[in-house]
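Forum: Protein Structure Q&A
Topic: Joint prediction for protein chains with partners

I've read a bunch of threads here and the consensus seems to be that you should model interacting components together rather than docking separate models afterwards. I'd like to see that in practice. Below is the full input, 578 residues plus whatever partners are listed. Could one of the regulars post the assembled result?
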Amino acid sequence: MTGTGGAAAAAAGAARSAFEERVLAELGAMAPAVSEPAIQKPHRLIARVKAGSIVDVSRRLKLIGFDHLSCETCVDYESEIEMVYLLWSYKEKCLIELRSRISGTEPKAASLVPVWTGAEFHEREAYDMFGVIFEGCPNLRRVLLPDEWTLFPFRKSFKIESIHEKRKRAEAEKAKAAKAAAAAAAPKPPAPPAPPAPAPPAQNVPPEKEAGPK
Amino acid sequence: MTQMWLNMGPQHPATHGLWDLLVRVDGETIVEAQTKIGYLHRGVEKIAENRTIEKFLPLNDRLCYVANSSWTVLFVNAVEELIEVVPPERAQYIRVIVLELQRIASHLVWLGAYCSDMGLLTMILWGWRDRELILDLFQFLTGARIMHNFPRVGGVRNDLPPTFKERTLKAMDYMDKRCDEYEDICGRSELFRMRTKGIGPYSIEKAIALGATGPMLRAAGLAQDIRKDDPYLVYDRLDFNVPVGKNGDGWDRYTVRLEEIRESASLVRQCLQKMPEGDFMLPGFKMPKVLPARAIYRRAEDPRGEGAVYIAGDGKTNRPYRLKIRSPTYIHLLGIPHYIPGARVSDVPIIMGGADPCMAEVDR
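Posted by a regular:
Agreed with the consensus. Here's the joint model:
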């Protein structure tokens, strides 16, 4: 097995270790909180977890043997944010992926710091980039971005412009400015005919000043 | 005694990059610390969402300026798993050779910088000189010394050049000899022992709780290696040992990494011998126009620890919907404040350097 690609996935049904069976049974017992537990391929499990019970579930999984929090991150689906937790068992050499959905408008999730101290680092990054508030995280501050930053750049609503888009926008703005200037210049020809009769040079200055702010 | 905050960084020679360790000192003893990072943040993960896979590939080399190809190989592995493609066996062997050469180069840079932190300036010259050998091999193989841009989805860019095997075997033999000399100049130096033994120790439990991986975890005494426990590419067909330390202090981090150089040299040798003939790239392979709508988490043993990529496709475009890069050093650096209290100010560079920081990868 090279571990790459479909061949391994096909063999998933055949090779089920006792540990994987035990984890599946344990996940099944946590039924309302955990749904759709499955084996993707050997040593890879996946399950959905209700947002409120992630701390309990991960605490129980840690007791079974998933002692390493490999990663905690999120994926932005605009209306919802999917939290992804990846736990690894050093003893049983098995990875489990937990997914739970939280609201996208007011993202809030329970912190895993009571279970793993190192969860704080992952959570700070998720807060920094997605604005997810982790309740119970002791040090929820910006980590990669400056403290005074107010945006959450990895949200899908935060668009980055390509060079072409930037150039297009600059050109559009330039054209708009030129148009405005032309429009501002256009009323000027009718203006001279109106005050031609008195025509002292001192009076010519104020109308021009008025035309400027327009 | 009054306490005060000290900035160990961002322009401190021991930071090996741009980051800042704020330490609150009581006389000479550290009572509290804070890690300040982000000076090199480029938003690589966001950039990936706006690029096709092929266009993003060269950026992976920029993730770490010391172990470039490690990240590109990891990313390519993840993409291959996502689109369900298995590269030819020869390509997998070539990738392992590149990974292990990269590990040697990375550890040499670390060793040089680590020793120069404690005033052992011979080592920085030796380390960088011997790294040149590896860089020459990379130049021979890929045409570039640092930014190789060598792996491709479905294989690697080119096959091994004609005399690559002989040259590499010669370099690996030389590297083994040099390792003995490093041991003489570092390990037998009373100064080096005094400066590293018992500095910044932590237990296995603490390392696991903080999420430490790779040499940092092995130094604490847990023999885990993703190449062995969760094998990828052809690592399950190769024979190698996982060196471990005992206390997780500066000395153990040094011995683990030095031993890893030897193991890597042996892995390169095995690959060159076992490597089959054949394609180095899947014949007629083309990137699919659409990435499947699922997510893949792929881990690899980076020279610094557990590197991983979480990549999700959306089933509509050929750009990743989300890319998360798990950087091992990011976790290690933020974990420093949890075990540094009690150390002396003069030990801070040893503890900072022991984490082998590579800021491009930490800040992404």
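The beta strands of chain A are 34-41, 44-49, 68-77, 80-89, 94-103, 108-110, 133-135.
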